[in-house]
Predict the 3D structure of the following.
Amino acid sequence: MKNNAIVANIGHFDSEIQIAGLKNFKWDEIKPQVHHVEFPDGKKIIVLSEGRLVNLGNATGHPSFVMSASFTNQTLAQIELWTNGKSYKNEVYTLPKHLDEKVATLHLEKLGVKLTKLSKEQADYIGVPTAGPFKPDHYRY
Amino acid sequence: MSAKDYVVKDISLADYGRKEINIAETEMPGLMAVRAEYGPKQPLKGARIAGSLHMTIQTAVLIETLQALGADVRWASCNIFSTQDHAAAAIAAKGTPVFAVKGESLEEYWDYTHRIFEWPNGQYANMILDDGGDATLLCVLGPKAEKDAGVIADHSNEEEQALFGMIRKYLKEKPGFYEAIRASVKGVSEETTTGVHRLYEMAKRGDLPFPAINVNDSVTKSKFDNLYGCRESLVDAIRRGTDVMLSGKVAVVAGYGDVGKGSAASLRQGGARVMVTEVDPICALQAAMEGYQVVTMEDAARTPTSSSPPPATRMSSPSITCGR
């Protein structure tokens, strides 16, 4: 890598960059969450957020709009587990597709999206209900 | 509530945080619609949610949505650097117990992650909202340590050192704590790829003590947050951190899953020339079809003086690499 190459990780843990190994070299804090790491040959790299997730360490994470979709899923999951938890085993589940489509639907108006409605005839032809779900569970988007 | 059932950096930041929360609400139509639809029914009444998720402005809107649906919550960040101190202050000022400081130590982090389970009246959390799986981990590893302290005898990194240290403290000061939280919690919803991976591993081993909902793999999560979220926030972070001009730089993105796709797009939209490394042939082919050069990290990091890669793959100075 070149001198002053910027090295960052946007995954959850700091293990994706070998920070423990880099700790053997000289660290100089430029400002919080921004460090110079100097190799023995004098070459430096700039490490952001000490290898922890950079978008939340050096900025403010994802914008509100996209987090609304994520957190609406979180809220629906909490409601489902709290009100209907007894019908689940100690396993890992995903939310059903109709709720996924609901979350998307709740974010359309804000963006001025005009959704086309399937006629009964069209829906029958492609074999889905007019109100969805519009894709089989194996569909990958 | 005790006099000060929270830890934030500066409670006087609450007004600033509240103003940004008010703006965020207008950008979070899903959460606001859920409040309107479910608020009157109070479906989360009785739920005591231990929340372990980056204490940001957006998370503040989530917390207040859960409360609007009847839940009682205690909250901590799931990363030592991810808290927005004004968001934490605004939540604390409203009387919600929150334990989150940007730049907290690992010891403080694990202390806070424990405290979200402990209600002042002696009750424990009965739900977990997790991001990365650390809160869930306490309900799995903790009871094992109560049976056999050997499982936390040797740490392999500083993260584990802090975690094991805190577990030892609880074993000594609050015997039975972990078995109690394990028995109390009825379920967990998990936010992210890493946490979901941990959950499936636990389920495979038969270690999962309660049902889990994998929120990450909702299409409206991973195909949006992981992709479009990173597309906006990655270069935001690099620019705030370094002020470097991205245009013309060579960037390497390690991994082309949902996060990698968003990260590569982020850098490309910033004007960088983007290369991708992959181990998965499907993701590698996707990257190539999208017009990215797919290389090995060894080739990408090679200097212009070395012989093999063609000029376009040589890293300019400075260069940018991104894990994921």
